[in-house]
Amino acid sequence: MRFPRPLPRLGLRSLPRPFPRPHRHDLLIAAAGLSCGLLLWSLDLYMNGGRLFEQRWAPLIPLVVMAAMETLRRTAPRTALITGTLVIAADQFTGGNLATMLMFTDVVYAAVLYGTPASARRIPYTTGLVTVTVTVVLLVWWQNAYALLVGVLTAMVSFLPALTGAIVRNHRDAAEAARLRAEQTALLAEMDRVQAVTAERTRMARELHDMVANHLSAIAIHSTAALSLDDAATTRQALTVIRENSVAGLEEMRRLIGLLRERGGTENEPAAAPRLAGLAALVEQARVNGAPSGLTFTLDVARARTEEKLPAPVELAAYRIVQESLTNALKHAPAGPVAVILTRDPQTLTVRVTSPYRSPNGERPGPRAPGSGAGLVGMRERVALLGGEFEAGPVPEGDPEASPEADDAKVRAKVWRVRAALPAEERTAES
Description:
Blueprint: H1 24-42, H2 60-70, H3 77-91, H4 98-114, H5 117-142, H6 146-228, H7 232-260, H8 279-290, E1 295-300, H9 312-332, E2 336-344, E3 348-356, H10 374-385, E4 389-395, H11 409-412, E5 415-423
Parallel strand pairs: 1-2
Antiparallel strand pairs: 2-3, 3-5, 4-5
Helix pairs in contact: 1-2, 1-4, 2-3, 2-4, 3-4, 4-5, 4-6, 5-6, 6-7, 6-9, 8-9, 9-10
């Protein structure tokens, strides 16, 4: 036996509701207003007398409808106001109920407070105009003081609730705007903090790389030589260089730790920021480290006028650029001369470091120690922070003004050049 197919279920839940679910506070207000109105009605307390509809049950209709509008005061304030206005006008033809009028004042107040911004602006002006119009018309019609009393009652029922709602809404909007500004300020402060932390981490990473990479590269090169050559004298010399670089690396680490702890140095401690005066010792250390690889190192600072004072960040950047360039030469350069030249004019301190790029037979040797590729990035960042110019790459030998970006630079190049132009006066990249 075949059963008929069941009918498809209707998606009743997907049907839109005419109004959102009333707020529970609105339901309580409506219930309280309806209860008070029923109590007044049961006690035969009316506001009007001798009206069109004298039946005892007539005031109940406006009372119930107005109570229903109270449930929509928050979710549909415009509908509640329009219907409430019609209801309060109809209530004037019955005995009248005080609870109906009080609920209407609350509907006017809610229409301004919860309605659209346009309604919040128009309702106070409209109720004020209605109050003035009613007063003037009744004065002309009745020509007695009772017209003024009716005008005052009209203002109390319509204009004053609208004005109160506008004041409360303005305060609420101002508080919300202040809260949003506070959140935005907190967000901007957090962004500034994150940027500051990121910048500080980048600076620390750059300092660590520049300080330690030189010593660790020398240690790697000489430890490889000690392991590959079975010669006691060579091994002893390599171990001596390894120890010197280990001690120097520890001193550099202590200097950085002292900076991070914000501790002032003493005369027995190394300077917190290396200066150009320390380049001679740096080149001498590179000469010792590079001797087994056939590298020779020279330093020319005569044209730099080192006796003239430079800003500390500029001297630190120049020192680190020379240090990283010497480290790269120890890692990658074939046997040959490495020259460090500093020149200065009134506006610029120029640092040039040249090293062999190809061996005499035109081949490029492999690296003697592994590298991360962060050295050139760090040098470029240092120069950019000071608003200077930086370039690094292969150039033809004997052509110091050639650009590393030239099309045939790598084909004809026998020299690797690092050039940094630093401002003699401290400034940032933005200035």
